[in-house]
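Protein details
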Amino acid sequence: MATTARSVYVHIPFCRHRCGYCNFTVTAGRKDLHEPLLRALELEFQTLNVPRPIDTLYIGGGTPTQLSIEHLRRLCCLMRHWFPPTIGYEWSMEANPSDLDSERMEALVESGITRISLGVQSFDAGKLTTLERTHRAADVRRVFHEARRHFASVSLDLIFAVPGETLAQWQNDLQSAIDLNPDHLSTYGLTYERGARFFGLLRRGKLRQVDEETERAMYEWTIDRLVSLGWEHYEVSNFAKPGHRCRHNEVYWKGEPFFAAGPGAARYIDGQREVNHRSTTTYLKRVLAGQSPVAERQRLSPEDRAREQLVFQLRMLEGVSYTAFAARTGFRIEQLAGTAIREYTALGFFEQAGDRIRLSRRGLLVSDAIWPELL
């Protein structure tokens, strides 16, 4: 592997229950696979041959905190060996409120975790039931205050536009999160992805999407409310207090290389994208048998790399510098997507700010429809 990457993602696929909206690589109720996964991860790390110093680490899932305290300590010990952290490093871990207690948090801090991302999704009891979450608002508040004592940064994930949700209900939900005063907030409109149970329920008329006008109002109110309180809206779905951006996710959005390990994990090294097998059991069989876990491999052309980088960077509110982009990729933005950008600028979806192009407020509302035109 190359030595350029300064970040690593590790996927832990275990959950108590697969929520209806989830199409991630997840395995529910298989504690018997915890030990084999750690062995497989160690074997996958060994393909590096030598340890690689890193600036950011993100342990996601699934629910990493489904692992026992002993397994979490062993995982972090492996990480520290193969990916020794540099000065000022950021180590993030995803967690569910129902999995965390003081003992677990203390073990994570001692193991090097600096940032915790809590999959809250909502504070509303009815909405939590719809989303099939196992915790309640009281669990979130208890765990949050405990996490605040242990970690340098605490982030909350929230979902809006859940079936039956009104704008007023979302406003109350977001305010509940604001009142806790976290360091970072990620807010996502509910999507119905192929492979998730909610997708089938929607197709059969068992679920009804929130109408576009209401979802748009929810998103705009989120932006206005958080920005008015001093939050930095730095990416389409992400808001941070000063100094608390998720540095690891910025690696993705800036098109920088990163290592990755675990079932379904995707890495990006030297212009090549690789994705491990999404089946946890197939991943384990392959790695434990000394075989490669890679299921997909794609070598991006320089132009495709540049187009992808353009789209990722445009997700960030600061936008893209024309001169810096050309210097880094060897391609001018006008050369790659000049016609589309001129059309979208005329429609008010992009705006020019000196040497930079960035999404306008109007563009933020339809960004997912814009990206295919640029790729």
Observations:
- DSSP finds 15 helices and 17 strands in the chain.
- The chain has two domains: 7-253, 302-374.
- Residues 242 and 249 are 16 Å apart (CA to CA).
